[in-house]
Amino acid sequence: MLDKYFDVIVNVSLFYGIERTGIANMLNCLKPRVGIYKKGDYIVTSGQTYENVGVVLKGTATVSKESISGNRIVMTLLKERDIFGEIVAFSSMATWPATVQAQEACEILFLPRSKIVGDCDKMCSWHRIFIQNFLRVISERAIVLNKKVEYLTIKSIRGKICSFLLDHYNKSGSKEIELALNRNELADFLNVSRPSMSREMSKMKEEGVIDFHLSTFRIIDLQALKAMSEL
Amino acid sequence: MLDKYFDVIVNVSLFYGIERTGIANMLNCLKPRVGIYKKGDYIVTSGQTYENVGVVLKGTATVSKESISGNRIVMTLLKERDIFGEIVAFSSMATWPATVQAQEACEILFLPRSKIVGDCDKMCSWHRIFIQNFLRVISERAIVLNKKVEYLTIKSIRGKICSFLLDHYNKSGSKEIELALNRNELADFLNVSRPSMSREMSKMKEEGVIDFHLSTFRIIDLQALKAMSEL
DNA sequence: CCTATTCTGTATCTCCAGATACCGATTTTG
DNA sequence: CAAAATCGGTATCTGGAGATACAGAATAGG
């Protein structure tokens, strides 16, 4: 029944490192449900009883949260192979904290939370890997959030830019940085306004700390960059 | 050998819901190590190879991070029964991202990461609970971080205060709120300066939206509070 | 119970960053 | 290839929040 989705499922991070036959056995034991949605359909709604971890098999969906005053804010965009609800699964929350809605026609795999840790008696070897994967996915989500908190905590725009560039430098080891984000997205990520960010970047270029053209950045004065990274 | 710590261990969140005998068996299988530290000793240092999840059995310790420019910033204070390193355990990180140092004489339990998911063949029932606990602890850490990101993303001080109070209201259901934080801690948490926060709170009091005296707050105009919660 | 210390509210001054508008550069698309 | 749409840099103006200083309230400690 899940055969047609197999090529997608095999590449879902929760199943990394498990062979096709293992996954097949596992799905047998997890007894997942597949939901099919039309564009605009609600996949889960905020406040609804939480029961399953979701996996997008096909299509795209938005994760949104109703703010206190009533406006909906889109928080994430989900695409094929993305997971949602994985953090709620094992917390003590009983309901969905956000709404997931089909942005285009969607097919979703639901893995029952109760089955994941396994009442599968023999706790087969692939099940162990599955749980490790689960732990890894959640942990990495936490690490990303932690990093985000670090950026947001920096007060000045300059400090944010410097930290951002330094992190890239530390990861790649190269003073030449190619960003995947455009200015709007970067400004959004750092939680500042685009013109203010541009202004600050231009100043830094003038001062000879960095150079850039469109999405290509180059660190010129590494020392200065470090010194300014936490103003 | 671990007998003297048992009353502490029983109350560690990772072991919730497991009977004493279960915990004893489990510790047998996890083969943990206990480390004893004097005040000021380094328990783990940033960059060191990651191997164990830590549990504070006795004493207090600080978690600190070296910023890029070299100053150390204390991020958390650990006390008896607190866990550290639980998020790194299952990520793909190979080294400690922060330093943990004994603030007073400390005794620490180290649970080897490799044993946690269990090469314990029969995956005993308490082991399953242990892993569920682990998942819960990490998930809840992620949820807290997520909440923190929400607060930090709000631009205005007023918005932050409103959201903060509303969250408390939603949790307790009461318009009378007793805070555990003092002004400095609250300002720190919201990442604003204390005088600026006080100024804003006073304005809101004047406007008849809230009332407060020291750590006792009262919501007067709930509608107004909601309306302002995301300026 | 009185002193010392910490905590909280308030005023002033300065300035950083947001909002807005606009233009040129770049990319997309028909 | 031309027209349209998106994207990026810059200028101006303004407001909100930070820094600092200080005084009164609350709490702790002897």
TrEMBL record, chains A, B:
One of its GO terms (cellular component) is cytosol. Pfam families: cNMP_binding, HTH_Crp_2. One of its GO terms (molecular function) is DNA-binding transcription factor activity. Keywords: DNA-binding, Kinase, Transcription, Transcription regulation, Transferase. Gene3D superfamilies: Jelly Rolls. It comes from the Bacteria. InterPro entries: cNMP-bd_dom (IPR000595), cNMP-bd_dom_sf (IPR018490), Env_Response_Regulators (IPR050397), HTH_CRP (IPR012318), RmlC-like_jellyroll (IPR014710), WH_DNA-bd_sf (IPR036390). Residues 155-223 form the HTH crp-type domain. Residues 14-113 form the Cyclic nucleotide-binding domain. PANTHER family: CRP FAMILY TRANSCRIPTIONAL REGULATORY PROTEIN, CYCLIC AMP-BINDING REGULATORY PROTEIN. This is cAMP-binding domain of CRP or a regulatory subunit of cAMP-dependent protein kinases. It comes from Desulfosporosinus hippei DSM 8344.
